[in-house]
Write a structure and sequence with these properties.
Layout (H helix, E strand, L loop, with lengths): L1 H35 L8 H11 L6 H12 L8 H19 L8 E2 L2 E2 L1 H5 L1 H20 L6 H15 L4 H10 L7 H26 L4 H28 L2 H4 L10 H5 L1 H18 L8 H11 L4
Antiparallel strand pairs: 1-2
Length: 304
């Protein structure tokens, strides 16, 4: 009995340490993100407001946090990771602004507030999205703490994730096949490129900065890919069962999703299955993977 109590206490200690780390890292990230987005040109005031409206709208910052966790595993100081972390959030936010536009998903609510284009118009929203994408590359390339060859590798990975073989390709397939009954291969393609790809890049880019081995990068890719799928399936579950107030965004805008394909019960099982696969993939980091495990468990329980 005493042994069982000790195990629980140790797990609680890991959870407490991880939550403290997550909160401290998020605070540091928010401060640095604001510094990267400073603008003193009066003519761009409305564009700047539009960008900040979405960038500071209460996002979970999962991708930056993942990058910081991975970098910490390889002994990389967070000062060398912050440009990557901020770039990831800029890309993610840009994709959300673009997704919500009338000619895309035509969503009216994002993170519990009117979507960017509803407040600022489609023209300004589109420019805000493009501005965030280009700023993401810019801050990595200007980072004095990253050697040039690492900058090239990181920006190349980010550009690939955004482009035709990433977010753009995934969104295209999502749009053009929306009127059809989607089968698993099409749905897998969409979410591999729209959701999982950026999550994978968050971990692998940080691992590249930390000089990880090929085997280690592969393990992180598998973790991130599976967790990205769990995240998306849970998103579809929340879309089907939640309210706009609870989830914080317009619902049932995605014509193809896992709930329509498999039903609620199987999707709940799939979320757990993909999360377990993610955690199994990082066993090679035994002894320093606690934060990644807790991150996966936290995402499994999210309500928005």
């Amino acid at each position: 009995m005493q042994r069982g109590v000790a195990v629980i206490t140790r797990e609680e200690g890991h959870m407490k340490e991880a939550l403290l780390y997550f909160n401290e890292t998020k605070d540091y990230f928010e401060t640095r993100l604001a510094q990267y987005m400073a603008c003193d040109e009066p003519l761009l005031t409305t564009l700047e407001e539009s960008i900040k409206y979405s960038l500071y709208s209460g996002g979970k910052r999962i991708r930056p946090l993942f990058a910081f966790i991975v970098g910490d595993m390889f002994g990389v100081p967070r000062e060398r990771l912050v440009s990557l972390a901020c770039a990831l959030e800029m890309i993610h936010t840009a994709s959300l602004i673009m997704d919500d536009l009338p000619h895309m998903d035509n969503a009216k609510v994002r993170r519990g507030r009117p979507a960017n284009h509803v407040v600022y118009g489609q023209d300004v929203a589109a420019l805000a999205s493009i501005g965030l994408l280009t700023r993401a590359y810019e801050i990595v390339l200007e980072d004095p703490d990253l050697p040039d060859h690492k900058k090239t590798l990181v920006v190349g990975k980010l550009a690939n994730v955004v482009g035709i073989n990433g977010l753009v390709g995934g969104q295209f397939v999502d749009l053009k096949f929306a009127s059809e009954t989607m089968q698993y291969p099409t749905l897998e393609y969409i979410h591999n490129h729209k959701t999982a790809a950026l999550f994978v890049a968050s971990g692998t880019a940080a691992a590249i900065i930390g000089d990880a081995s090929g085997e280690q990068i592969k393990a992180l890719e598998e973790y991130a890919s599976n967790l990205g799928f769990a995240f998306q399936i849970l998103d579809d579950l929340l879309d089907a069962t939640g309210t706009v107030e609870e989830v914080g965004k317009s619902l049932q805008k995605d014509k193809g999703n896992f709930v329509l394909l498999y039903g609620l019960d199987k999707c709940r099982l799939l979320v757990e299955d993909y999360t377990n696969r993610a955690i199994d993939a990082i066993k090679i980091f035994q002894g320093r993977n606690d934060r990644l495990i807790i991150l996966g468990q936290m995402l499994l329980k999210r309500k928005s």
